[in-house]
Amino acid sequence: MANPRVDGVARANLNVGAAAALLLALNACHATPQVRLKPDATTAPPALPALVKDIDAILADPALAHGYWGVVIRSLKNDETLYSLNARKLMMPASNMKIVTLAAAAERLGWNYTYDTWIFGTGPIANGVNGVLDGDLLIVGSGDPGIGTIDDMSDRLFANWAERLKSAGIRTIAGRVIGDDNAFDDAELGFGWSWDDLQDDYAAGISALQFNENMARVMVGPGPAAGTSAAVSIAPAYSGLTIDSAVTTVAEGAAASASINVSRLPGRSTLALRGTIALGSAPRALDVSVDNPTLFFVNTLRAALIANGIDVRGPAVDIDELPSAPPHPASPPLIAYTSPRLSVLAMRLMKISQNQYAETFLKTMGAALGTPTAAAGRAAVQTTLQAWGVQPADLIQRDGSGLSRYDYVTPDALATILTHVYRDDRLRRPFEASLPIAGRDGGLTNRMKGTPAEGNARAKTGSMTDVRGLSGFVTTADGEPLVFSILANNFDAPPAAITATMDAIVVRLARFSRRGATEAQRDK
Of 3.60.9.10, 3.30.565.10, 3.40.50.970, 3.50.80.20, which CATH number belongs to 115-340? Predict the structure, then answer.
């Protein structure tokens, strides 16, 4: 998901209001810009001068002059390029990398792909209806990223598992609850992720056993008086994190009232909180990543089994902590749980930009080839996309989500991928359904409202420090489908100005008519 610390960045020496005015400028005459970014000379056919001029003027705002832009817009009807700027230049995509990962996953795994989680008993069940499992409960995962989130029913799910175990005659588990995460390798984090992001929920590591998207929520509230320690709590209860808080309460209205810093070193379970919170203020919610997703899963499951009437004598453990891993029993599992299909999981991946899902899909593609690593997943993506016409030089992929600043892709490559998906009947509908809709949902809920793009444009957003992206589909006033990719890097303008610029371009595309503006407006 997008980095929440980025979206609030502001620079007082720049005119943020000018960015918001870009959308209004589409209905006004176009003055000669002070700074002009020229589109590629070969992409301004005679029938399109007004569109090219308008987009050129939008990008010519002086506040954007220091940034770097890549834009490609094509007709899905006849492959005509309507506009192109730096279309073959490598740029950081942020979460537009999820387009790459999901498209390849849909091709290689199929939209009906599901994840399985199995629960085995490693010993016999003795003593009849009040039976004792004389052994361990072994939980074998395959990577399901949605347990505890996708259906918002983790308590009911684990309670259901407890009832099914009791139906199998189990009232006591003599041994441990073991989490087997060996379906994936043990590299939880994406390549090149910034260490100071790792405590945040959007940088949660992945495992073959995952619960609640590998995140917990810390609540920080003011103490009873100025100078006292803040009140701190964390949920779910079995996150495995230890809180080291030095947050103090300050007088009501103090300038530093919302200054709370969160940090956690890689591989450590201690979450350090530093800062202040104002007396009388509302509690602050901080979403954080857990250190060991597998332990998070099995500790939570063990607690749920106990709460639902099963006596568990042994601890919850990660299989990697054992000197020798127990073999998978030859008997059928006591419980077999199947995830929603990939087409359903994709909705959460794209609508809210959930990084953990993207990293899971990438590693799953590797596992499907027999090597459960992100590197094998990247190789699978590259092979798939080359067959679609994406040149190797146009994509440098290091993770599945775009959180890595070592990811690079060209706008042309993103447009090529989207074009292939659009024209493949096997891929198109679920992919389109997963994209945020302008003015309606996901990352575009509050964007382009009240314009011809609302309810029309479907696109993936991308957001991290000095990077923004927007790539997807829009239909013109004539009913012509277009594909577009817009990336911005290395800008010093406020992020709001960059977002407004991208939205202005997409709105202009929604208004575009090959018959001319007067005729198109009359037909509306």
Answer: 3.50.80.20
